[in-house]
Design goal:
66% helix; 4-stranded antiparallel beta sheet; alpha+beta; 434 residues; 6 strands
Length: 434
């Protein structure tokens, strides 16, 4: 990835983002969040740094070439050609060029390149892991919005029933068939229902705010989402063990942790390079010009030609004792590898717990949803029957209120089971992907 692409992505989020007029789907929310989430962008920036590290590691195989120049002036007493001291001023000028080619670096450059490439693979997986975390987070926020919206509808239905009951009570009271206390009780139920509607609407708006924050939206005016299709939300659940086996092969977090273990192994290899010798080839060109005050000095051009020299040589460095620096570096690298292995084990354990929990919750929610379908139908029929009995005076207000409460309770439980089932199934399908 080019740096300009990252800069462009960063500049995009500085501009105000206005929510689209039409409702957003879950896929569009996930796609938008991945493109704008700060953690994902940070991971992509780290990935770019890893790319630069690979280039830097490759450049270690290249030779170095440098040029130098120096001008010096000396004043006061100095040694002369007659081996005596005299007060004379001298001036010297020198130029040179040096070339160095590493022939063998104790395999350090090769191992550092492999380490940089392994690090880049790890960073690629970290980017995918960040995207996966954003996906799961947006999924949960999205379904929470739908759940709160449907609960708000339940509260409105509850308020509608209470208002209908109040109207009946007032008619019966005016006809002298019920006492005034029944009317007052019905008014209290309406007031309680109005408060419940306000609270449910507020919970819905707060859930929308949480989702918009997850999407990094700067402007949420007109922001709304589409419902999910329940017909496609009841696939046959794979077993928890099967989901876990697939996740071990495909989950970005697990793959990134494994890559970190491999990266730590490369770090050990790089550290061990300190035990090996190093050999390099060197070449140089040099010349100088020297003047002495009070003396006839050879011309600049003549001296530069006469003092011109060339050099070739090999440099061999054999480590004998480095105050245990290499040994300590190897030990530190081995400790880091153990830490990476523990992190891999922790992630695998957390993943297994997450999948098993999601599986149990999905099974329980599905059973609750299936049973809830019957419960909602039955409680609605019971409420209708109780309403008819109450209208003809064969039931009192308390009995009707109990039937209404049972209906609203089963309806709320059905909504909760529905979205719990959808969320857990989607989580399992996410981990079970191939």
């Amino acid at each position: 990835m080019k740096l300009s692409h990252i800069i462009a992505a960063a500049a995009l989020t500085v501009l105000p983002v206005t929510a689209m007029a039409e409702p957003w789907s879950l896929d569009s929310c996930i796609s938008y969040a991945i493109g704008h989430n700060l953690d994902v962008r940070s991971a992509m920036l780290e990935r770019y740094r890893g790319d630069l590290s690979v280039t830097e590691a490759k450049d270690r195989f290249l030779p170095t070439l440098s040029a130098s120049a120096a001008q010096n002036w000396d004043f006061g007493r100095g040694l002369t050609a007659e081996n005596t001291y005299a007060n004379r001023n001298t001036s010297s000028f020198g130029v040179g060029a040096n070339f160095s080619l590493p022939l063998f670096q104790g395999l350090s450059a090769l191992r550092q390149l492999r380490q940089a490439q392994a690090n880049l693979r790890t960073l690629d997986l970290q980017v995918e892991y960040a995207k996966d975390e954003v996906t799961l987070g947006v999924m949960a926020y999205y379904l929470q919005v739908l759940y709160n919206r449907e609960i708000a509808s339940v509260r409105r239905e509850e308020l509608r029933l209470s208002q209908t009951q109040l109207e009946r009570q007032q008619i019966l009271f005016e006809a002298g068939k019920v006492p005034e206390v029944d009317v007052l009780q019905a008014k209290a139920q309406v007031a309680s229902g109005e408060v419940a509607v306000v609270n449910a609407d507020n919970d819905y708006r707060l859930a929308l705010v949480d989702l918009s924050r997850a999407l990094e939206l700067n402007d949420t005016q007109g922001f709304d989402i589409l419902p999910v299709d329940l017909d496609g939300e009841l696939p046959r659940l794979a077993s928890a063990d099967e989901v876990y086996r697939n996740a071990l092969s495909n989950n970005s977090g697990i793959l990134a942790a494994r890559s970190s273990v491999d990266l730590a192994g490369h770090a050990i290899s790089v550290a061990k390079s300190g035990y090996l010798p190093r050999l390099s080839f060197n070449a140089g060109l040099n010349s100088s010009y020297y003047t002495l005050s009070g003396m006839d000095n050879t011309s600049f051009g003549r001296q530069m030609r006469d003092n011109f020299s060339k050099s070739l040589g090999f440099s061999l460095s054999i480590p004998i004792f480095d105050a245990f620096a290499t040994r300590n570096q190897v030990r530190q690298a081995k400790v880091q590898q153990l830490s990476a292995e523990l992190e891999l084990e922790r992630r695998e354990s957390d993943l297994l717990k997450t999948i098993r929990q999601a599986y149990c919750q999905a099974e329980g929610a599905e059973a609750q949803y299936r049973a809830g379908e019957v419960a909602v139908t039955s409680s609605k029929a019971a409420l209708d029957a109780m309403t008819e009995k109450y209208t003809y005076g064969r039931a009192n207000a308390t009995e009707w209120e109990q039937a209404r409460s049972n209906y609203i309770t089963t309806l709320s439980q059905q909504v909760r089971a529905k979205y719990e089932m959808i969320l857990r199934n989607r989580i399992l399908n996410f981990y079970n992907r191939h």
